TrEMBL record:
This is Solanesyl-diphosphate synthase 1, mitochondrial-like isoform X2. Belongs to the FPP/GGPP synthase family. GO terms for biological process: isoprenoid biosynthetic process; ubiquinone biosynthetic process. PROSITE patterns: POLYPRENYL_SYNTHASE_1 (PS00723), POLYPRENYL_SYNTHASE_2 (PS00444). Gene3D superfamilies: Farnesyl Diphosphate Synthase. GO terms for cellular component: transferase complex. GO terms for molecular function: metal ion binding; prenyltransferase activity. It comes from Panicum miliaceum (Proso millet). Residues 1-18 form the signal peptide. InterPro entries: Isoprenoid_synthase_dom_sf, Polyprenyl_synt, Polyprenyl_synt_CS. Its cofactor is Mg(2+).
């Protein structure tokens, strides 16, 4: 049942690229939706034009290369921070910190770049100095992030993660849950050492948001399943809350003004939402090999994401099908019908445009930071902006 839907989507994307470079505006949209759709397309067009012109003026920075060594240092520290008294727990807690299983380390990359973008303190090995404290926030955030992934895999009964066996598949659900709990304990033990109650509160808020988002997904009603507002709120909690609050924590530790703290938070918020929206697209258009997990996994788990929600706006008859849900094994035919409607809709294109709008808002937040003539700061800010486009182009 998965192959026809994927072929339909592939055909849609091919025909769209050959017929016209500009997606058509759906006809059954309200005034506000038309404004949002037009705004997204306008910004996307401007960004594409300006980026092509800009490439001749300057070489685009590689966000990962700027702080590659420092991210490696954070990864090494993480391996030592997850050592427990019981060897089995050490092995389980360090499962995603092993060489070859580290992933992209997106959180540390974003946070260290943010630290460079707003602070002059670049190098210092002492724990009570800004840069070392910023590295500590990167380590804490990554541990919380990995803990949330482990717990998510247990709840979803997932077999794979990052192209390898999930932890719960490898060691069982009970030890996987304990490993996630242990990572949260290590994270907040490290957070206490920062001796900053505001930062501790921000990190606690992020964990609360993660839990809230998961509960929103578990207890969703038929009406909420078809609500874009509900979906975006859940997306913020599950995907963007951690990085946005951690970005703000970086600014707090740097002694920045409330305005700069707010801009750092907004960057993380919009970057996280854009990232998830691209994830939504890849779940329909990617392959299991490229994603490191089963494709079409969301819809087969009964999770309705942005492409389907946009398709509902074009085809109201899909509303009733979505309300019934897809998590019931007997609803395989409904999944096939939903994918057919998606292939006829602008759901994929509109999701990409919405992601582009959030990516632009993240870049705008960086542009709003106080002016600086320091080249390291300027390079770091440009790298943060380039990172938004890197996420937009990703295929896995």
């Amino acid at each position: 049942m998965m192959l026809p839907g994927r072929l339909l989507l592939a055909g849609l994307l091919r025909s769209a690229s050959t017929a016209s470079s500009a997606p058509r505006m759906p006809t059954n949209m309200g005034c506000w939706d038309r404004f949002t759709w037009s705004s997204c397309y306008f910004h996307s067009t401007i960004d594409n034009t300006s980026s092509k012109a800009g490439l001749t003026a300057k070489k685009q920075l590689d966000p990962l290369a700027l702080i590659k060594d420092e991210v490696s240092e954070v990864t090494d520290r993480l391996r030592s921070m997850v050592v427990a008294e019981v060897p089995e727990l050490t092995s389980a807690a360090g499962y995603f910190f092993r060489a070859g299983a580290e992933g992209k380390r997106t959180c540390p990359t974003v946070l260290l770049l943010m630290a460079s973008a707003i602070s002059m303190e670049m190098t210092d090995g002492l724990e009570n100095r800004p840069r070392a404290r910023h590295r500590r926030v990167a380590e804490i955030t990554e541990m919380i992030h990995i803990a949330s992934l482990i717990h998510d895999d247990v709840l979803d009964d997932a077999d794979t993660r990052r192209g390898m066996d999930s932890l719960n598949f490898t060691v069982g659900k009970k030890l996987a849950v304990l490993a996630g709990d242990f990572l949260l304990f290590r994270a907040f033990s490290a957070a206490v050492s920062l001796d900053n109650t505001e930062v501790l509160s921000l990190l606690a808020t992020a964990v609360n948001n993660l839990v809230t988002g998961e509960l929103m997904q578990m207890s969703i009603t038929p009406a909420q399943r078809c609500s874009m507002d509900y979906y975006l709120q859940k997306t913020y909690y599950k995907t963007a809350a951690l990085i946005s609050n951690s970005c703000k924590a970086i600014a707090v530790l740097a002694g920045q003004t409330t305005e700069v703290q707010a801009l750092a938070y907004q960057y993380g918020r919009h970057l996280g939402i854009a990232y998830q929206l691209i994830d939504d697209i890849l779940d329909f258009t990617g392959t299991s090999a490229s994603l490191g997990k089963a494709s079409l996994s969301d819809i087969h788990q009964g999770i309705v994401t942005a492409p389907i929600l946009f398709a509902i706006e074009e085809f109201p008859e899909l509303h009733e099908i979505v309300e019934k849900g897809f998590d019931d094994p007997s609803n395989v035919e409904m999944v096939r019908i939903a994918l057919k409607y998606l292939s006829k809709s602008q759901g994929i294109e509109r999701t990409r445009l919405l992601a582009a709008e959030h990516a632009k808002l993240a870049a705008d937040a960086i542009d709003g930071l106080p002016e600086s003539e320091d080249q390291v700061i300027l390079d770091s800010r440009q790298a943060l902006k380039d990172l938004t486009q890197k996420f937009m182009r990703r295929t896995k």
